[in-house]
Design brief:
Elements lengths: L2 H4 L3 E3 L13 H18 L2 H12 L7 H11 E6 L6 E8 L1 E4 L9 E4 L6 E2 L15 E4 L5 E2 L4 H5 L9 E5 L2 H10 L1 E6 L4 E9 L7 H7 L10 H9 L2 H8 L6 E8 L18 E3 L10 E6 L12 E9 L9 E8 H10 L1 E11 L1
Helix pairs in contact: 2-3, 2-4
Length: about 350
């Protein structure tokens, strides 16, 4: 736990206080936790580093649910952040699967851009979600002074042309926008190959929710808004969509991670993501790599049953819209089915962060 997190007021709990704790698949949670251990060992807070070192040095890691449960109970204490509200909000995100081309064609004309050389990080990537309301990236002007990077509209209108930044091309700006919101994408190319793209920086402007903009403009009511409805409305008229997309000045750049079969989706600092176990969090309250037990009693569509989700997850990612003590984004996986689950996820939740003893 770093200095800022240590100032947060927390209520200490017992594992017996966590509804459904004994019924979870702790081995699946352990495997997700272990996957992030190498990255956390490099830059995590002291307590988390000690636990991750023990994981990596273990000659006999837990091999069943009971042993994995003992691992967490022996090394962590469950806590809940005091923030004055009965619950928070859990949403979902996923890795889109899109068609694309290595060359610009009439069918694929929208470029996916790599990170410009003059883009400067003003905050650590792990903090860009927590500090999303301020400028997180910038560039230097001719006088050497820092200045805002180009906005989404300026980039769409050619501010970065002739720099050779084009990685590949997609069919329309709405597909690019959704991939930028999700932070990664699996691209099926016209030559039969596939590439996985991942986040490699943003222009530093604050994120503005297009869905919220349309609700406030009276186009949708709150109950009608979901990922699929937004996608259909935007794709119905690309000229109309362009002006709406420009209200979100934030713009994400990508890099090629590799072929589909050789890679997996990554979170912040290169942490491998595990579907339905990886969580994007606000790092003011939870450290990257920290286990977080969640209770979402009305979230039934994820497990196709009733009773919601009671599950130990791991903080593997951050996001510009993920701000608050009980605000999270659940990684639902790759492809259309994962996208459908993510798009339906907007549920009350309680978080119990596991703090190293």
């Amino acid at each position: 736990m770093d200095e800022k997190q240590s100032l947060v007021e927390r209520e200490v709990m017992r594992f017996d206080d966590l509804p459904g704790w004994a019924d979870d698949d702790h081995l699946a949670a352990y495997q997700a936790f272990a996957a992030s251990a190498p990255a956390i060992l490099k830059s995590g807070p002291a307590g988390m580093v000690d636990v991750c070192r023990a994981v990596l040095d273990a000659s006999q890691p837990p091999s069943n649910r009971q042993a994995a449960r003992r691992f967490f109970e022996d090394r962590f204490t469950p806590t809940r952040v005091k923030h004055g509200e009965p619950s928070g909000l859990l949403t979902g995100y996923y890795e889109p699967q899109l068609n694309g081309s290595r060359e610009r064609t009439s069918a694929f004309s929208v470029p996916v851009l790599s990170r410009p050389q003059d883009l400067i990080n003003l905050v650590e990537e792990a903090q860009r979600g927590a500090l999303a309301e301020q400028m997180t990236h910038a560039r230097r002007g001719a006088d050497g002074q820092l200045m805002p990077f180009f906005t989404r509209r300026e980039i769409d209108e050619g501010a970065l042309e002739d720099r050779g930044l084009e990685l590949l091309f997609l069919a329309d700006p709405v597909e690019l926008f959704f991939m930028q919101v999700q932070g990664s994408g699996l691209i099926q190319l016209t030559d039969g190959s596939s590439l996985r793209l991942i986040y490699d920086g943003k222009n530093g402007h604050p994120y503005t929710s297009v869905g919220r903009y349309l609700i406030e403009s009276g186009v949708f009511c709150d109950s009608e808004m979901n990922l699929q409805a937004l996608l259909e409305w935007l794709k119905a008229d690309l000229e109309r969509a362009r002006d709406v997309l420009w209200c979100n000045e934030s713009y994400v750049f990508f890099r090629v991670l590799g072929a589909e079969n050789d890679t997996r989706p990554l979170g912040t600092n290169g942490i491998p993501l595990t579907p339905l176990r990886s969580l994007a969090v606000d790092t003011r309250f939870y450290a990257l790599g920290q286990p977080v037990y969640i209770l979402a009693p009305t979230l039934d569509h994820i497990r196709e049953g009733t009773g919601g989700i009671r599950r130990l997850m791991v903080a593997h990612d951050v996001g510009s819209a993920i701000k608050g003590a009980e605000r999270g984004d659940l990684f639902c996986g790759s492809g259309p089915l994962a996208g459908a689950k993510a798009g339906m996820t907007k549920h009350p939740v309680n978080f119990f962060g596991l703090v190293p003893k």
